[in-house]
Amino acid sequence: MSQSPDEVYQELFEDVQSAQIFSDSKTFCDVTPRQITPEQILEHYREEKSKPTFDLSSFVFEHFLIPNTTIDVNETWTIEEHCHRLWPLLTRTPMKENFSTLIDVPYPFVVPGGRFREFYYWDTYFTMLGLIRSNETDLLNNMLENFAYLIRTIGNIPNGNRYYYAGRSQPPFFVLMTELVGQTEKYRNELEIEYQFWMEKRAIILEDGTILNRYYDDLNTRPRPEAFREDTATAQLTERTDIFAHLRASAESGWDFSSRWMDNETDLSTISTADILPIDLNCLLYHLELALGKTNKAEQRRQAIHRYMWSDELKFYTDYNYTKKERTNRMTLAGLYPLWLHVATLEQAQQVAQQVEKLFLYDGGVVTTVAKQSTQQWDSPNGWAPLQYITYRALLQTPGYENLARTIRQRWMALNERVYENTGKMMEKYDVVDIHKPAGGGEYATQDGFGWTNGVYLEMLHDRRKEL
Length: 468
Description:
Largest sheet: 3 strands, antiparallel
Mean pLDDT: 96
Oligomer: single chain
Distance between the termini: 53 Å
């Protein structure tokens, strides 16, 4: 089945989602048929559904295998043992399952954990940091090969290896993954194909001829299947016809959802991600251009980032809304990418670092954005491992702010350790403002596992020991 479940199961899919047979919209996207084919199930449904005795829930459980989310772990492990020993429990071996929504790949891969039963593109970079520290180089190389395979066969790396993610990618970290193991040259052809995807399908030409890029989704006219109920509800709050394009573009960004994309931070239906040229994406593409030897293009992009995304007033980098022709002026940790990937000048880097210390630093690390009213998960009070890591690395290479970097590392690790001691789990995200809460809130129940948190913790632990 090389189709999304909303296409395959049609009105059955919509009815199951609308009836809330499962509390999580993603669950039904990941089911597999027990015995008969999807076509036969749909035909059977059409015959049965109008009968007075018909029960939708019973029908679903009779015809589908429901995916499992639990991971049983050893209660007596230290946090370090937990991070090292969890990789086998998070590793999946490709199995040809009939009518599964999984996109097949040739080699084993690591999943984040919890409801995330497939790999995710940008998560994998931070997972790989931990795989290196756990000496799991075979697994890391397998995952590089899987990504290369997807680029060769699909033309890009999808958001995750599910057919319902096929319309979008995620932040282009593949080049950084290859650099972790010194294999950029080996994957040069695949990196070139990926670059073409971003330049052909995600580029915006501004009035002065500047080319910058945005997040988008090629399947932009309908709700995301894995968030069908939620997206449908958001769409009902607005008369905008392009709402699904913006919701899906946010999912490509990895920041789903955040005040970063919203005109009104308390109203998700004001989201305008597809109108925004993001600072993080354009820094990643600058890095990719340099790696591919496109030095002129990289320099043009660097100048454009300074011109359109640096704010002298805020002393910070923000995204640029190209339809409004103005910076969004939303201060978020995405503004640290220019420091991490060497786009910022020394003076800019030091100004950004000052703002991090003044506005983002809390007891548990750094907060994702400075928004005060938003309830989205990529906002305050939440802290996320990838952004702690990028901020930490960015400040570590900013003269005069190395100690601030170490403070962030220390506070984040201490928060991970405290929650692990209380729960035996590593979480997807944490509340860095109220450090006595077990984990941050958001779009779905908090997930444990958790690939990128484990990876960043092991990398920071390695750094801490190296300094001692």
